[in-house]
Amino acid sequence: MASEAEKTFKRFAVFGESSSSGVEINNKNFSKLCKDCGIMDGKMVTSTDVDIVFSKVKDKTARTITFAQFQEAMKELGQKRFKGKNPDETLENIYKLMEGKDPATPGVTKATTVGGVSRLTDTSKYTGSHKERFDESGKGKGIAGREERSENSGYVSAYKGAGTYDKKKES
């Protein structure tokens, strides 16, 4: 049975890498794992530290590291992240951070209408000429809401007696 840390390692190893079997992890996904799990905190452990440790534990020609090498890397990063604790304890703490974590997918955000957005998209709060572009339900009127349409009836726009010519003739 794989440990929680190993499961997390596998999930990140195959993330975005269709050819990966989950046995080895590349630098990009290793960095992602460190960032998403909070191992890289920007203070004690930076992205540079993560890259340096990755390069240190991988084989000279390899582009990926195995889980065993990953554990070495985590011991090293753990020493930076949790200063003053013994290596086994730091590894424990790192694994706690990793438990049950999945690769986050930025850019695949759920549509939110919180705060500023809902205020901007609420058509009932529109004023001036913008208000006329939407009906009461908040649905846009399309081109009719954007352009002044002329009637082509032959009458001048402000003429009140439109359509009364025929009636006058009969009387």
UniProtKB/TrEMBL annotation:
Keyword terms, alphabetized: Cytoplasm
Compartments where located: Cytoplasm
Residue ranges, compositional bias (Basic and acidic residues): 129-151
Gene Ontology cellular-component annotations: cytosol; microtubule; sperm flagellum
Main location: cytoplasm
Family: Belongs to the TPPP family.
Name recorded for this polypeptide: Tubulin polymerization promoting protein family member 2
Organism encoding this protein: Myotis lucifugus (Little brown bat)
Organism phylogeny: Eukaryota, Metazoa, Chordata, Craniata, Vertebrata
Gene from which the chain derives: TPPP2
